[in-house]
Design brief:
Structural class: alpha/beta
Shape: globular
Number of domains: 2
Number of helices: 12
CATH superfamily of the largest domain: Medium-chain alcohol dehydrogenases, catalytic domain
Strand content: 25-35%
Oligomer: single chain
Order of helices and strands: EEEHHEEEEHEEEHHEHEHEHEHEHEHEHE
CATH architecture of the largest domain: Alpha-Beta Complex
Low-confidence stretches: none
Mean pLDDT: 96
Number of strands: 18
CATH topology of the largest domain: Quinone Oxidoreductase, Chain A, domain 1
CATH class of the largest domain: Alpha Beta
Distance between the termini: 16 Å
Helix content: 25-40%
Length: 347
C-alpha cells in the first residue's frame, strides 16, 4: 500500500523555520482513515508557527508535523469505518473534538472546549500522508478540485463569519483584505448583500479583493474617510453588518463608528494582546458583537460546498502555487504580506 516513510514539514526545533524531514507514515486506528495528501494551503497560523512567536511557543509541541488545510484521497481505513471508501477524494475538519463536554453532547461541536487542532496540537497535514478520524472527513464532490479542496478550511472561516448575521439586502463593511476577508466578501455577494466595502492598508490586497469580489468597493482608510463612502453609496445611516478580519483595534473603532444603530459585528480577526475598547460607544449604539472561531461542524461545510457547486468562485484568491519541496518559497511569499492563498502540491 505505502512505504513506511513519508516526507513531512516539521517544526523540528524551537526556533524560526520549518524543516522537511522523513517521518513514519501514521498508523491508523479502527475509527481513522489514512489520507494521501495532494494539496495543502498555507495559513496565517502556519506563519505564526514558522516565526515561532509567543503564541506558537506557548501552543505548539516540538517536534510537530504542521499544516491543517488539505485535500487528498483515502488510501486506507480502520475496520469500523463504514461510510467512506478507498480512493475517495476528501478534505476534512482540522478541529479534533472531545465527546464529554455539554457543548459536544448537544451537537455544538465547534464550541467544544476540548478541541485540539491538527498541525497545531496534533500531527498535521503538511506531509504525504495524514491520519484523520473518519468523523472529521469531508468528501469532495467532483465539482470541487483538489486546489479548492485545500482552501476549504479558511473558506469555512469566511463562511462562518459572513453567515453569522442575515446579509440579504444588507450593507456590509469588512475590515481586513486578507484571503479570509476577501472570501467573506465573495460569500456576502453570493448570498445577497447589497453593498460590500472592504478596507485594508495594503494596496496589493485591495487589488486582489477587486479581482475576487463582484462589485466590491475597496478603501484605504488612511486615504478615504468611510463616512464619505457611506454617503457615496447612498446609505442613510451606515453599514448594517461588520466583519472584523484584521485584528486591528483601529479598524474595529472605525467599524463601530461606521455602523448603524443596532448594527452587528462578527469578529474573526485576533488582536495582539489586550486592546483598549470604547465600550460606551458600543453600548450607546446598541451594537451586537459575536466572536467567531473555526467552522460550525459540519453545517459550515455543507453550506460552503453547496455554494461552490452553485457558482461561488473563490479561485482567484489563490495567487501562488509551489511544489512541496519549494515550501520555503511559499512561506516567504506568504510572509511578504501581499499574496492571497498559497497552495503546496505534494504529489
Amino acid at each position: 500500500m505505502t512505504t513506511n516513510e513519508m516526507r513531512a514539514l516539521v517544526k523540528a526545533k524551537p526556533e524560526v523555520g520549518l524543516w522537511m524531514e522523513h517521518r513514519p507514515v501514521p498508523e491508523i486506528g479502527p475509527d481513522d482513515v489514512l489520507i494521501r495528501i495532494h494539496k495543502t494551503g498555507i495559513c496565517g497560523t502556519d506563519i505564526h508557527i514558522w516565526n515561532w512567536d509567543d503564541w506558537a511557543q506557548r501552543t505548539v509541541p516540538v517536534p510537530l508535523v504542521t499544516g491543517h488545510e488539505f485535500a487528498g484521497e483515502i488510501v486506507d481505513m480502520g475496520r469500523n469505518v463504514e461510510d467512506l471508501k478507498i480512493g475517495q477524494r476528501v478534505s476534512g475538519e482540522g478541529h479534533l473534538i472531545g465527546k464529554h463536554s455539554r457543548q459536544s453532547r448537544a451537537g455544538k461541536f465547534h464550541l467544544d472546549p476540548e478541541t485540539r487542532g491538527i498541525g497545531v496540537n496534533e500531527q498535521g497535514a503538511f506531509a504525504e500522508y495524514l491520519r484523520l478520524p473518519a468523523f472529521n472527513v469531508v468528501p469532495l464532490p467532483d465539482a470541487i478540485d483538489d486546489e479548492i479542496g485545500a482552501i476549504l478550511d479558511p473558506l469555512g472561516n469566511a463562511v462562518h463569519t459572513a453567515l453569522s448575521f442575515d446579509l440579504v439586502g444588507e450593507d456590509l463593511l469588512i475590515t481586513g483584505a486578507g484571503p479570509i476577508g476577501i472570501m467573506a466578501g465573495a460569500v456576502a455577494r453570493h448570498v445577497g448583500a447589497r453593498h460590500v466595502v472592504i478596507t485594508d492598508l495594503n494596496p496589493d490586497r485591495l487589488a486582489l479583493a477587486r479581482k475576487v469580489v463582484k462589485d466590491v468597493v475597496v478603501v484605504d482608510p488612511k486615504e478615504t474617510d468611510l463616512a464619505a463612502i457611506v454617503s457615496d453609496l447612498g446609505m442613510k445611516q451606515g453599514f448594517d453588518v461588520g466583519l472584523e478580519m484584521s485584528g486591528s483595534q483601529a479598524a474595529l473603532d472605525q467599524m463601530v463608528e461606521a455602523l448603524v444603530m443596532g448594527g452587528r459585528i462578527a469578529l474573526l480577526g485576533i488582536p495582539p494582546g489586550k486592546s483598549p475598547v470604547d465600550w460606551s460607544r458600543i453600548v450607546f449604539k446598541a451594537i451586537t458583537i459575536k466572536g467567531v472561531y473555526g467552522r460550525e461542524i459540519f453545517e459550515t461545510w455543507y453550506k460552503m460546498i453547496a455554494m461552490l457547486e452553485n457558482g461561488l468562485d473563490v479561485r482567484p484568491v489563490i495567487t501562488h502555487r509551489f511544489k512541496a519541496a519549494d515550501f520555503r518559497d511559499g512561506f516567504e511569499t506568504m510572509r511578504g504580506g501581499s499574496s492571497g492563498k498559497v497552495v503546496l502540491d505534494w504529489r
